[in-house]
Amino acid sequence: MPPLCLARHTPLVSHYALCSHCWGRIDFIRPPLCDRLGLPMPYDTGGTMISAAAAANPPDYDRARAVAQFEGVMRDLVHDLKFRDRHDARRLLGRWLVEAGADLMSDADVVVPVPLPRGRLFRRRFNQSAILGQEVARLACLNLRPWRLFAPVKQDHRWVSHAPSAAKTLQEHLRFRPRD
Ligand SMILES: [Zn+2]
């Protein structure tokens, strides 16, 4: 199979890549960033920057990073992976995730993908977060722990799993608000 652009499926010289047209239509999130939320800041102060949004409503996590705005070509690539069973963008997305999260991964121990609720996993047959987690763990030389959030903890003398609520909390917190 000749190499094709992952988004428009036009011929290319290498596999797992985008043509320059599609690449130019991705709005990558670049520094300067809010250190907590990972959202772009208007200028660089030279030190650690916390946005007004993060100061007013501090998130439960320490730091988040994202690759790009979820729109246009980026949304198509993610939807291809999630809903159309097209996994050929995993390498490119994995590389972008490692680049965007480089400063977080330097002191990370493991990669833990956000689990899918069991019903959705059954319908979709795979967890796209686990697929990307695999790529990130491989590229960043970290251990993948897909079941970490499912590990039961002892509470009131019995073992319980917080996986469903942990997954929901993570998904809610990691959802980027659309731009104005
Ligand atoms: Zn293209």
How would you characterize this protein structure?
The chain has a two-stranded parallel ribbon with strand order 1-2. The termini are far apart. It has one domain. It has helices at 20-23, 52-56, 72-83, 90-100, 102-105, 118-124, 128-140, 163-174, and strands spanning 110-111, 143-144, 153-155, 158-160. With 180 residues, the protein is mainly α. Helix 4 (90-100) crosses helix 7 (128-140). Bound molecules: zinc ion (ZN).
Concise account of the structure shown:
This protein is mainly α and 180 residues long. Helix content is 38%, strand content 6%. The protein has one domain.
Relevant terms:
180 residues, mainly alpha, two-stranded parallel ribbon, 8 helices, 4 strands, binds zinc ion
In order across it, which strands form the biggest sheet? Answer: 1-2
Total helices: the number is 8
Number of strands: 4
Shape: globular
- Structurally, the number of domains stands at 1
SSE-based structural type: mainly alpha
Please state the average pLDDT score. 85
C-alpha Rg, in Å? 18 Å
How much helical structure, as a percent, in the residues?
25-40%
Low-confidence stretches: none
State the order of secondary-structure elements, H for helix, E for strand: HHHHHEHHEEEH
Terminal residue distance: 42 Å
* Largest sheet properties: 2 strands, parallel
Strand content: 5-15%
